Amino acid sequence: MTKQLDLLDIQGNVIRAYGRFGYPVARYVFLNIRHSAAGREFVGEITKKVTTSVDWGDNPGQIKQPNWTVNMAFTYQGLKELEVPTASLIGFSAEFVAGMKQRKDILGDDGVSSPEHWDPIWQGNREERQKDVHIFISLNARLPELMEESFAWLKGVVEKYQGGVVILGGNRGDDGALLDYQDVKIVMENGKPTAKEHFGYTDGISDPVFEGMPHGAQSPNGRGKQMADGSWEALATGEFLLGHIDEAKEYPPAPGPILLSRNGTYMVYRKLHENVATFDAYLNEHGKKYPGGKELLAAKFVGRWRDNGAPLSRAPDEPSKIKFDAQFAAADHAGRDTLLSDYTYDDDMSGAKCPFSAHVRRINPRASLEMIRDEGDTPGSLKRSVCAFDTPGALSNRRRLLRRGLPYGDVKDRTRDDGNHGIIIMMINADINRQFEFVQQQWINYGNDFKAGNDKDIILGNHSADEKFPSKAVLQVDPNSDHAPYFLSRIPRLVETRGGDYFFVPSMTALRMIARGVIDPT
Fold first, then answer.
1. What is the pTM of this model?
2. Which residues, in sequence order, are CB contacts of 257 under 8 Å at separation 6+?
């Protein structure tokens, strides 16, 4: 029986990555609550405009696709300022209560990524309540002029509360300007929109599919969970929404009452600056020496080719890439999604095609972590084990993340790192510690689960500038070949954290309860 979700109760940015639904620009606004009653009234007025996950359409009775969307979330301190009862507050997860800055050691936000270097908007502390981020509002628009229309609407609502709720400034923009919002937009190439980020990789591929997503969602093949017979099914809803059964057949921990938490979720917001000059220089340096050339090396960094996102598991070298490109060009939308997403590492347990430190393998290792030595084949080779779990990728299925957000800024000079360019990534999960923080700590900044020691994710790792402990990564080769592995030495930090926090994304029911002050945890 197909699981049905109440899409009218779930905020739209949980189900939809708006950038793929015709919203190429967005603006993220952060607010501070100065008066609790005014804050609740403000939440009530914004809630009337909040975009849900319900299907859009042009038929009678259907909701038409809006010109701009509105969604809202809260920090723990924001919920306190709104006077959510203590009995409910204590039910939120410890990492959400602490906030992202307090989790910096777990997240690897050190050196240039340390919180003292973040944008000024994130420099507030809980002793300075009037500088603290309490509310997050995202505005996604179909055109830049419609974005200005939506922001004017939001400012008009804020002004009605005469200082009871204020928009916080301090988001760094071009030339160090401090703005009252964080703008994001798709990257353009030769005047045309792309799905790329500033390093040149095609992004936003293989987002998870879970039970209850509306008709027309992407196929679970390669996006859901692989079953023992090789087929694919959607992931359990409770991996992403509170109040639903997760992959462990349990309800994820959540605050009471159930109406406050059900159909809500946690969102991790991170502003990541991309050092494009450092990236280009490092890629060019090693691209001259790498046997497969610069573009194959770039693909090894991430696990996908930069131009169209072809996975190395399907296209591990130039001849197979040419074949992939022909199939990709001839395929329809569904066929292209299959080519990009429907693959495993079953025939690449050595990492010869997609290295163990490649970004996509670190973020979603599929079933490749469950390995045993296969003494019946070539000595020392690896294969995926037959394990006691119901699904081959049970370990990684518990670490999946929904990814939202868009790039920010323009790269005006690729010979400099200090421009205003990067990506805003928002990750949605039901358990921040088990999902986001585990992936960030154990898979991005540590390699032991991948039999890679201390080697980090090549792209996102917090690579050290310390000459005593330089970062490295091994690009594996077929153990049956005569080729030697390639060693990436002294990997520089390619991505720097510039801010962020943990947010609770309530359901529509919970938003109305918060606005009315009628939460009863008893």
1. 0.95
2. 88, 519, 520, 521
